[in-house]
Amino acid sequence: MEYHRISFIHDDTEYTFVKAMSSELTGYALISACRAEVTIYMRENNLKGRYILTGMAKV
Question: For residue range 5-17, what is the model confidence (pLDDT) as tens digits?
């Protein structure tokens, strides 16, 4: 497992969170997993609408 910091913008506000993800994910699979985590984060925090994925980094 690796920890990744994921950042996104929703309604002109930037959100950042850290999530543990499989170290075997690379390329498109890693980006898809990050987008899925953003969707989950938005649902849990009652954020609705579109977002822009702005960053992802291993921490």
Answer: 999 999 999 999 9
